[in-house]
Amino acid sequence: MTPGATETVPEARPSLPRGVDFTLEETYRATRLPVDRAMTLNPEAYRSADYYEIERQRVFAEGWVCVGYTAQLAEPGATLVATVAGQPILVTRDKARKLHAFYNVCRHRGSMLVAEDGHRDVIRCPYHSWGYALDGRLLGAPYFKGLDIPEAERAAYGLTEVKDFRKEDYGLLPVRVDTWGCFVFVNLNPAARPLEEWLGDLDRRLGHYPFAELQLWRRKPIEVQANWKLIAENFMEYYHLPWVHPELNTVSSLDNHQRFQGPGMYTGMCTTPLARNPGLPIDVDALPAMPGLTAKDAETAYWILIVPNLALFLLPHHLFTLLYRPDGVTRTIESADMLVHPDVLAAPGAAAKCAAIFTFWDAVNAQDIAAVERVQKGLAASAYPGGRMCFRFEESIHRFQNIIIDLMTGTRRTPPGDEDLPTARGDSRSGFSLTESERQAKA
Ligand code: FES
Ligand SMILES: [Fe+2]
Fold first, then answer.
1. Where do the H-state alpha helices sit in 254-349?
2. Which residues fall inside 5 Å of ion ligand 2, going by CB?
């Protein structure tokens, strides 16, 4: 030790003991504090396999997870495959145009049924050719009831029919599915709260956008070597804007970022008004606004993270989204998608301008990915006990982390919006400490 130096031990919350219970309220006490006193979520949430497994069950298998867009399921016969909480899922549009979701598994011996998005009249298992209707009914099981066996061979089987078998009992296993605008959500928990309750007041705030008419213009799958929450948290805070995104900062700077937060399982903010920068592809004047917007919408960008896996970059002339799918503790598959209204696509030069917009967001996303992958590497440092949040710019992260804690601890509640909080902007807003009645309800 250098002469005169004293050994100091950083003040930190004690690290979690081995075998800690990630479903207990007590585990998250430091993050439940008001934002100006709170610690960030314990680093184990981003690096522990145990945490990941519980999160899969309690966040992704209990929540409304976005799996794609209505534009992918527009026609009868359209099928979309997805993975939610590690479960293989299939979404279909039946001949009566009704939407369905199922576990993507054959009721015979469990083969995965459909491997790729597409269109089909019948869902045919590739293994032994059991066929299912798009509404999930089992239509046929070749040879299964003996009836299709040639007369001359029947005696050799000694069994003419599988006993107690009714086709009605072997339809596809259903999963809840619902839509909001162009977004298709599924929920693996039959008893979960409805999507409408999950989304809170989002429809009141943004339901006038012509979401249902948007076309899926381009997609790009991206692998990120980071826990999905790091990506979500990076999306919702704008503290990093000047340093990570100098170009984006010219139209969407710290100064014109505002809260846009109502009650619901989401975090929201907006940039209003968007500054003009004709040199930037996303400039508000680059393309006409989509129809139905208010004058304020026409010069505003909304940044909404719908828990757990859908990030919206909603600009007047397009919607860019990131869909997250956790694929391990430190790996996430993103789909970077751009959706555009047909009226906007009809504008002169729209295709080239949309291509430039996609390239712009792709570059911004690459900047973000570099940042979050670096965080993931830093979080390997076992001495790091979690950090503090800048309440001016990171209150959204406090909200998000507390929503995750609610789900991990089995606390069903809709976090309030700003208008529900009696406190003025900038003070110790919390909204997350359990009230006495909530504590008793949980007990
Ligand atoms: S597993 Fe599907 S038909 Fe046999
Ligand atoms: Fe960013």
1. 342-345
2. 368
Best substitution site from 103, 108, 139, 173 to test ligand 1's pocket, by max atoms within 8 Å of Cβ? 108
Query: Residue 109 CA: which ligand 1 atom is closest?
Result: 1
Cα-to-centroid distance, 2 and ligand 2 (Å):
41
| Per-residue pLDDT at 124 exceeds 50 | yes
Q: Which residues line ligand 1 at a C-beta cut-off of 6 Å?
A: 106, 108-109, 111, 125, 127-130
- Predicted confidence at residue 204, as pLDDT, reads 96
User: Model confidence over 282-301: pLDDT tens digits?
Assistant: 999 999 999 999 999 999 99
Tell me if residue 68 falls in helix, strand or coil. strand
Cis peptide before 273 (omega within 30 of 0): yes
Using the mean position of ligand 1's atoms as its centre, give its distance from the Cα of residue 132 in Å: 11
Looking at ligand 1, which residue's alpha carbon is closest to its atom 3? 128
Closest atom, ligand 1, to C-alpha of 141: 3
* Average pLDDT of the chain, as a whole number: 89
Nearest to 270 by CA among 215, 322, 206: 206
Q: Can you tell me the distance from the alpha carbon of 169 to that of 171, in angstroms, rounded to the nearest whole number?
A: 6
Query: 15: which DSSP letter?
Result: P
CATH (residue range 65-176): 2.102.10.10
pLDDT score, position 9: 47
Q: Which atom of ligand 1 is nearest to the CA of 113?
A: 2
Domain ranges of the chain: 1-63+215-443, 65-176
117 band by pLDDT with thresholds 50, 70 and 90: very high
Q: In whole angstroms, how far apart are CA 138 and each of 16, 130, 133, 248, 321?
A: 50, 8, 6, 52, 36
What confidence tens digit (pLDDT) does each residue in 250-293 have?
A: 888 778 888 899 999 999 999 999 999 999 999 999 999 999 99
pLDDT confidence bin for 18, thresholds 50/70/90: low
Q: What is the pTM of this model?
A: 0.90
Which residue minimizes the CA distance to atom 1 of ligand 1?
A: 109
Class of domain 1-63+215-443: alpha beta
Q: Which residue has the tokens 């440092």?
A: 381
Residue nearest to atom 4 of ligand 1 (CA): 128
Q: Give me the pLDDT at residue 164, please.
A: 81
